[in-house]
């Protein structure tokens, strides 16, 4: 006979609160799954949320440290979005026999390997949107308004951004990869070629 609160197999049965949490998690996941194909609308929503946060910071002249933390986090996400999953710089250090997984071709005689991002677009969007919404939430409370001299934070962020982007662009040029689709040749899919016998 099973005891109260357990199923016949001995596994604990979720309580009412746990069932509600599971149901909310499933609904949130369903909503995220439904928005996956609409990347333009997702990014427009994120841009509007960022504009709302920036307008709030600029009009009230508070929460500069939250803005700085958000900027550093978004820069970190952007760099992970630009980088390949399998870094050719690290692969050059390893032995050719010990390679695991696909990478980018570094020589003309290498085989073509597609660009796989370290951080996929959907995860980049989700993390950025979540960070912006958390920043908006933090701007509702005075305890997150730590007094700082904002011009120093701005200059430091701009210097950090320029150094990291310069290094990333050098890496892209050195290993000859482009992490976006603009300007790339597109091939039209069609019927299989006819047999010419």
UniProtKB/TrEMBL annotation:
The chain crosses the membrane at residues 40-57, 63-82, 148-165. It is found in: Membrane. Keywords: Membrane, Transmembrane, Transmembrane helix. One of its GO terms (biological process) is protein retention in ER lumen. Signal peptide: none annotated. It is a multi-pass membrane protein. Its main location: membrane. Belongs to the RER1 family. Involved in the retrieval of endoplasmic reticulum membrane proteins from the early Golgi compartment. This is Protein RER1. It comes from Rhizophlyctis rosea.
